[in-house]
């Protein structure tokens, strides 16, 4: 019966996913642009454009992308897509223990989640980084635990938020490894291209105009919410900074609370949520953390409530109501109250998750490999 269900889910996903896949791996093309520019003229890394799109990542990310720039496009696409899919499998395996049939079903079904299918469609790196960070934080068996967080942050800055988790849970050795790993990525960038690295770390790192329209519906962050609400394209200003401060303080407190309680997965997921909410730009495909966060929510519920919450949570990120109101060309600035409610659905779901996890009394036993190896005061 379980295998029959799993096969049925795979068939449905195989039929529906191509209908929703509307992209041409444009971000992978930009990644390759970074790698090829580094080989041709490293100093021009942040001047190169692909159909108007610039390379917006740290110099170390371009170094990582060099192998994908050297191989033919079909090979790069195949390796990248397979790597993304294997990362999705790893995220599920590290988040929850399931039988083989159920694991196959949830993996196939999660391909329809909007953040996942957007990551696949754009050729984004989000699932790879998510899997890497989960492994680094949850598995204490490797000697340099924390190192991969630093390397992930060197590729894409958002993983820096997990240094906050290491601080509030007093995992000093892992923090040292993460900091050293990040420092090495920064140094590598300066060694390969001093000009590009100086340009990035002195000016481009804070330039959100290179990333895209901040008001766009796909930007699910506090900053975007305030922009759409007020109509001020300059950003949320002082209100946004205050909201960020409250979110960081409250989010890291909850992350520590969940970690100490034994729910390490929830602690990591809430920390990721802090990064998503507080970043000036959090595109919908950055929200792949809804998988471990959703698993954490289900663990905190019981009986029929668990079924309702599971359907509501994963259903929301499948139908993706953020795309229902008018979007593109700053039409988001004219949203009605109903449009605001739908268009900021990911933010509302995040608040729901925080409340549920904060009030839950469910205590989760920490995995042996982490519980016996991490110092948490």
From TrEMBL:
<protein>
    <submittedName>
        <fullName>Glycosyltransferase 87 family protein</fullName>
    </submittedName>
</protein>
<dbReference type="Pfam" id="PF09594">
    <property type="entry name" value="GT87"/>
</dbReference>
<feature type="transmembrane region" description="Helical">
    <location>
        <begin position="238"/>
        <end position="259"/>
    </location>
</feature>
<keyword id="KW-0808">Transferase</keyword>
<feature type="transmembrane region" description="Helical">
    <location>
        <begin position="307"/>
        <end position="324"/>
    </location>
</feature>
<keyword id="KW-0812">Transmembrane</keyword>
<comment type="similarity">
    <text>Belongs to the glycosyltransferase 87 family.</text>
</comment>
<keyword id="KW-1003">Cell membrane</keyword>
<feature type="transmembrane region" description="Helical">
    <location>
        <begin position="174"/>
        <end position="192"/>
    </location>
</feature>
<keyword id="KW-1133">Transmembrane helix</keyword>
<feature type="transmembrane region" description="Helical">
    <location>
        <begin position="94"/>
        <end position="113"/>
    </location>
</feature>
<keyword id="KW-0472">Membrane</keyword>
<feature type="transmembrane region" description="Helical">
    <location>
        <begin position="147"/>
        <end position="168"/>
    </location>
</feature>
<dbReference type="InterPro" id="IPR018584">
    <property type="entry name" value="GT87"/>
</dbReference>
<feature type="transmembrane region" description="Helical">
    <location>
        <begin position="60"/>
        <end position="82"/>
    </location>
</feature>
<feature type="transmembrane region" description="Helical">
    <location>
        <begin position="344"/>
        <end position="360"/>
    </location>
</feature>
